[in-house]
TrEMBL record, chain A:
Native species: Streptomyces qinglanensis
GO annotation terms (biological process): ATP synthesis coupled electron transport; electron transport coupled proton transport
Lineage, highest ranks first: Bacteria, Bacillati, Actinomycetota, Actinomycetes, Kitasatosporales
Residue stretches making up the NADH-Ubiquinone oxidoreductase (complex I) chain 5 N-terminal domain: 66-116
MF terms (GO), sorted A to Z: NADH dehydrogenase (ubiquinone) activity; NADH dehydrogenase activity
Membrane topology type: Multi-pass membrane protein
Protein name listed in UniProt: NADH-quinone oxidoreductase subunit L
Major localization class: membrane
Gene3D superfamilies (UniProt xref): 1.20.5.2700
UniProtKB/TrEMBL annotation, chain B:
Major site of localization recorded for this protein: membrane
Name of the featured protein: NADH-quinone oxidoreductase subunit N
Organism of this sequence: Streptomyces qinglanensis
UniProt gene name: nuoN
Pfam family, one: Proton_antipo_M
Subunit structure and binding partners: NDH-1 is composed of 14 different subunits. Subunits NuoA, H, J, K, L, M, N constitute the membrane sector of the complex.
The EC number(s) this enzyme carries: 7.1.1.-
Length: 628, 562
């Protein structure tokens, strides 16, 4: 049954990718259907899980032995517990909605069948990632989503920018993947296994140094997949992919795999406070980094990408807090999955109506032309900024509270950072909202001279947006009411209450204050006066933020030129030293050969002398051996 | 004792009196003449081959010229096949394992190694006959198809007589009985159980080979020069061997292997008053054994007794080279193994260090000098020297694994060699075989199949995995390392690396160079050469991919009767 969850979309991918052109007409519906079937299976499993006691809910199922070697047992086995279940429902649920949306969005694309094949492949890989019962199989899923992400970012590979972006995402992710591989090696050498149960239950036996090393390697992996500093640079460019892809993979699901990894390996991080500190720092830095970038971008998708980075920073930070934060990290992950997917679908809908224009400075006043998009996007907006009563409010508020709850100076710093992040979120999202839907029209004809005629998207696109808007509004409240979500995850993540020096009410109050501040400043800048159609020069920080805080320049200077120099010197060493040694040896043997060859002079008499001498030496040596 | 059964030896009883009665019955003047008891069944492989050889002589003497070729071919193949069947029959009856014994009044051993090597030699002989009998390669002379051998060997090269013989379409069908005699001697060689039989066997197979080397149809002077060199140096080495035999007799008062071994071990004392001055003199033992070993090292082509190899390999007709390279090595290594394992095990602390030196020199010498060779036949000659070195590493292991690994290596190597030289016969230009390496440039583009086949053989020579060469080399080195010769294995691997260079160089030349405008053409052979090459490829690949069965076979055969 658990295997079917993975198998159904995998079958879809196989059929769609190998089926050929005859599936061009109906293939997208097949993909959508299989995705929905996977969701149905997930829902059925969820119901059966609800019927059990909290402690007995985890299900295991072994499919087959993958590498049955003495001392190295790798199984293809699944584990479905509350944490995995949460992900399964999110992945298949949001995934199915986005499949449906894509039917409309990709209607005129010649590669539609391939697109749905990739989407199904992504679902299968992502489900494998969250269902694996060991780190090795998780790694398979991890690479699988990386592959799907690569294929989908570069889906329009005829655009050089898309091909480059795909390559960039792939390369950056390799760095993280290497981290995961090293972490698995370390686990195997330390614990003799890489299955969750033996590794996570025996972390006490390993030294803290080892656990810290494993933790940092896992964090490196998480940084790659979840676009955290310092491996964040690929996410912005990944927006070259079709918008549904951005919504599903680069907002709702795949990029949160790092949060899953850290939460799943909680036992390791709990035993390695230093690694946890690094996790928190990475989360906090990325939170502000993404938010600042999001404030400056005029490309609606890139602004949202910055926001995604920032929101995942929240999650990573929460996960780094340990048992007081795991549940909130996952809770924010789920609510974020709803509202960020909704926002991206809304952005896609806007682009759909505006001839694929992405520059917000050429939007404006769209609320009357696209009412459904406006309302659903608006609800997502309210949710993400943490408007009281909506999803984001509950989940983000909990994280801020947990950050204060860390205690000590650390707690104050983290609390301040998360509050600042909340203010920035409110600012940049309000900016997006105002520039897109309010103010005067700044529409301009596209490159081919077509005037935009904004119109509402077809129902097949708006219905998923409406469903996601419902999630954005209500999910947080549902999870929060009576601590449902925390109790649900408790058997997996072990929940502890933090000891916040600030009362919950005070935290909520300051959250709301920072929210109002952010919205206010944004309205002051973009609502009160017209938005210039061409971006002003801006301050130094703004200009830096437009360049993604110089991430690419940094990478270029440090990594690219550093790497180039390294390879150049290695090539030099290879040419001169290694090849020199090799060629020298070869030349030496060649010369020796040429000399020895002259002994073979063709005269039988010399040969006979050689034999005679040889015999003499042979006899002498034999006698000598006896003498010695 | 390593590598020996406790099987009671039939020769043991008679050996106590010194020389085996096989050699002395006739000399027993005054006594009643006793007929020696000969186990004809056990010796049938040798007898069949020698009988077929004698029949071949009669055919050449009395049959009309027209009928000789097919009659000789039939007799040779039938004789070899029957002998092979006899070997199989003997092995099946347990003669290789449980019923191993000494036959022929102590002169010959019928045991696992002997039968394994005899089987290999007979198969090599059959393939050799195929290549000898090939008549499609040389352009037809005046309407009659001819082979690679001189029309009238007795005629002066380039003289009137030669022209007339060519015009008449004559061929030298004597090569078949010569080959059969050589095979007969080779069958005896690894089975010889006393030093005199060893010497006789050596001469029986060497003399026909000297002759065969002189019989090339083209470049006859080169061929004759090679034959003379081979003969002179061969005679020289035979003298060493014979002298060593005499010294050993002086030491032990016997030429029988197991009797010498017992004297060396001190279990038997010599009581013959005639030899009272010399027996037990270690100098005689050491010098004698060194000289006998030297005689054998000459035959395997070990450095520094290797210098005949390149000249003879190059000058001899290529089918003869292939046969000689494969079969001589098999026979000589068999004899060397028996000598060292049966006669001289008590002396192994003396001969092992010396053989270490020889093996290292041979491996490195063969591999290094091969690098600068420009003639494919000379290249293969040096390659065969290097391979002799690798085989010596297995011999030095002094273990049962050492014996079986050498047996396996010999079987694998001989078919690769036969195949490789058979390929060389096919690459021809107006002057006959185009053996200069530069002419092989770009062969892979003109004749991809032939070049690919040759590449397979070269890879096997180089010991690349999935070829028989790898399995053999691995077995030999493994046995050597387990026998405590780790340093030798290191040298062996280095030598293999050097050797890989010139093998791969030929492959690169064939596949990655532009073909020459005046390049050679590839002759289309008859089914016989084709099957020789095909058999080589099949054996190479089968022994490379699934060597275990044959390793087991060699392992079962790896026990000498004492």
């Amino acid at each position: 049954m658990i295997g079917l969850l993975v198998g159904v979309p995998l079958l879809g991918a196989a059929v769609l990718l190998c089926g050929g052109r005859r599936l061009d007409r109906g293939g997208h519906w097949l993909g959508t259907l299989l995705s929905a079937a996977s969701f149905a299976i997930g829902a059925a499993l969820f119901l059966s899980m609800l019927g059990k006691d909290a402690e007995d809910r985890a299900m295991h199922s072994k499919l087959f032995s993958w590498v049955p070697v003495e001392g190295f047992q790798a199984d293809v086995a699944f584990q479905l517990d509350q944490l995995s279940m949460t992900f399964v429902l999110l992945i298949t649920g949001v995934g199915t909605l986005i499949h449906i949306y894509s039917v409309g969005y990709m209607e005129h694309d010649p590669g539609r069948r391939r697109f749905f094949g990739y989407l199904n492949l992504f679902l299968a890989a992502m489900l494998l990632l969250v269902l694996a019962d060991n780190f090795l199989l998780l790694y398979v899923g991890w690479e699988g989503v990386g592959l799907a992400s690569y294929l989908l970012i570069g889906f329009w590979q005829h655009k050089p920018s898309a091909a480059t972006a795909a390559k960039k995402a792939f390369l950056v992710n390799r760095v993280g993947d290497a981290g995961l591989a090293v972490a698995i090696f370390l686990m195997f050498t330390t614990f003799g296994s890489f299955a969750f149960a033996p590794v996570l239950s025996s972390t006490g036996e390993a030294g803290e140094g080892t656990l810290t090393a494993i933790g940092l390697m896992l964090l490196l992996a998480a940084c790659g997949k979840s676009a955290q500093v310092p491996l964040q640079s690929w996410l912005g460019d990944a927006m070259e992919g079709p918008t549904p892809v951005s919504a599903l993979i680069h907002a709702a699901t795949m990029v949160t795999a790092g949060v899953y990894l850290i939460t799943r390996s909680g036992a390791i991080f709990n035993g390695a406070p230093d690694a946890q500190l690094v996790v928190v720092v990475v989360g906090g830095v990325t939170l502000l980094f993404g938010a600042i970038v999001g404030c400056a971008k005029d490309d609606i998708k890139k602004a949202l990408a910055g926001s995604t980075m920032s929101q995942i920073g929240y999650m990573i930070l929460a996960a780094g807090l340990g048992p007081i934060g795991y549940a909130f990290a996952i809770m924010h992950l789920v609510t974020h999955g709803f509202f960020k997917a909704g926002l991206f679908l809304g952005a896609g809908s806007v682009m759909h109506g505006m001839n694929d224009e992405v520059d917000m400075r050429r939007y404006g006043g769209l609320r009357t032309h696209m009412p459904v998009t406006f309302v659903t996007f608006g609800l997502g907006y309210l949710a993400i900024i943490g408007f009281p009563g909506l999803s984001g409010f509950f989940s983000k508020d909990q994280i801020i509270e947990a950050a204060f709850g860390k205690g000590g100076t650390e707690g104050w710093i983290l609390g301040a950072v998360t509050l600042l992040g909340a203010a920035l979120t409110a600012y940049y999202m309000t900016r997006v909202m105002l520039m897109t839907f309010f103010g005067e029209k700044r529409w301009q004809p596209d490159a081919e001279g077509r005037e935009p005629h904004p119109h509402e998207s077809p129902k097949i696109m708006t219905i998923p947006m409406i469903v996601l808007a419902f999630g954005s509004v209500f999910a947080g409240g549902l999870f929060k009411a009576g601590d449902t979500f925390v109790d649900w995850l408790e058997p997996v993540t072990a929940f502890e209450h933090g000891h916040s020096p600030v009362s919950a009410t005070a935290v909520t109050a300051s959250t709301i204050v920072s929210l109002v501040l952010g919205v206010g400043v944004a309205w002051f800048q973009y609502g009160r006066k017209p938005v210039p159609a061409v971006a002003p020069r801006g301050s130094l920080l703004t200009r830096a933020a437009r360049r993604d805080l110089l991430q690419d320049d940094f990478n270029h200077v440090v990594l690219v030129s550093g790497g180039t120099h390294l390879t150049r010197s290695l090539v030099y060493v290879d040419n001169k030293v290694v090849d020199g040694a090799v060629n020298g040896t070869a030349a030496g043997f060649g010369g020796l050969s040429g000399r020895l060859r002259r002994l073979q002079n063709g005269f039988a008499r010399s040969y006979a002398v050689s034999m005679f001498g040889g015999a003499a030496v042979l006899i002498a040596a034999t006698l000598l051996m006896r003498a010695v | 004792m390593i590598g020996m059964t406790d099987a009671a030896s039939a020769g043991g009883a008679s050996a106590a009196s010194g020389v085996p009665s096989l050699w002395t019955v006739a000399a027993g003047a005054g006594d009643t003449l006793q007929a020696p008891s000969i186990e004809y069944g056990k010796l049938s492989p040798v007898l069949i081959v020698l009988g077929a050889a004698a029949l071949g002589v009669l055919i050449d003497a009395f049959a009309p010229r027209r009928a000789r070729y097919s009659a000789q071919l039939f007799v040779a193949l039938a004789g070899l096949a029957a002998a092979f069947a006899a070997v199989i029959g003997l092995a099946a009856s347990g003669a290789a394992t449980t019923k191993a014994q000494i036959a022929g009044m102590g002169a010959l051993a019928v045991d696992g190694p002997a039968l394994f090597l005899q089987g290999t030699l007979l198969l090599v002989g059959i393939v050799g006959v195929f290549t000898f009998a090939e008549r499609r390669l040389e352009p037809a002379a005046h309407g009659s198809r001819v082979d690679s051998f001189a029309a009238q060997p007795a005629s002066v090269p380039g003289g009137e007589g030669e022209q007339q013989a060519v015009k008449a379409g004559w061929t030298t069908t004597e090569v078949f009985p010569l080959l059969m005699f050589a095979v007969g001697g080779m069958l005896l060689f690894p089975a010889a159980n006393d030093l005199l039989t060893l010497f006789i066997a050596l001469e029986v197979f060497s003399l026909p080979l000297y002759l065969l080397c002189a019989l090339a149809r083209r470049r006859r002077l080169l061929s004759q020069e090679a034959a003379v060199k081979y003969f002179l140096l061969g005679a020289f080495s035979s003298a060493f061997l014979l002298f060593g035999t005499a010294l050993l007799y002086g030491y032990a008062g016997t030429v029988n292997y197991s009797s010498i071994a017992r004297v060396v071990a001190g279990t038997d004392a010599v009581t013959d008053p005639v030899l009272a001055d010399t027996t037990g003199n270690d100098a005689l033992l050491l010098i004698g054994s060194a000289l006998v070993v030297m005689g054998l090292l000459f035959k395997v082509g070990a450095v520094p007794f290797h210098m005949w190899t390149p000249d003879v390999y190059q000058g001899a007709p290529t089918p003869v080279t292939g046969f000689m390279a494969a079969a001589t090595k098999v026979a000589a290594f068999g004899a060397l193994l028996r000598l060292l394992y049966v006669v001289l095990p008590g002396l192994r602390w003396d001969w092992r260090p010396v053989m270490w030196g020889v093996a290292i020199l041979t491996m490195l010498g063969g591999a290094v000098v091969a690098i600068t060779q420009t003639d494919i036949k000379r290249l293969l000659a040096y390659s065969s020297i290097a391979h002799a070195g690798f085989l010596l590493a297995g011999v030095i292991a002094t273990s049962e694994d050492g014996i079986s690994s050498v047996l396996f290596y010999l079987a694998a190597y001989s078919f690769v060699t036969l195949g490789a030289f058979a390929v060389v016969t096919l690459v021809r230009d107006a002057g006959g075989e185009a053996t200069h390496l530069s002419k092989w440039a770009g062969l892979g583009r003109r004749s991809p199949l032939l070049a690919a086949v040759f590449a397979v053989f070269l890879l096997a020579f180089a010991g690349i995995p999935l070829t028989s060469g790898f399995a053999g080399k691995f077995a030999v080195f493994k046995a050597a390392a387990e026998g405590g010769a780790g340093a030798l294995v290191v040298v062996g691997v280095i030598a293999s690396a050097i050797a890989a260079f010139f093998y791969l160089r030929v492959i690169v030349l064939m596949f990655f160079s532009e073909p020459r405008a005046d390049g050679p053409s590839v002759a289309v052979p008859s089914a016989m050469t084709t099957s020789a090459i095909a058999l080589g490829v099949v054996v190479t690949v089968v022994l490379g991919v699934a060597p275990q069965y044959f390793l087991d076979l060699a392992g079962q055969a790896g026990v000498f009767v004492r």
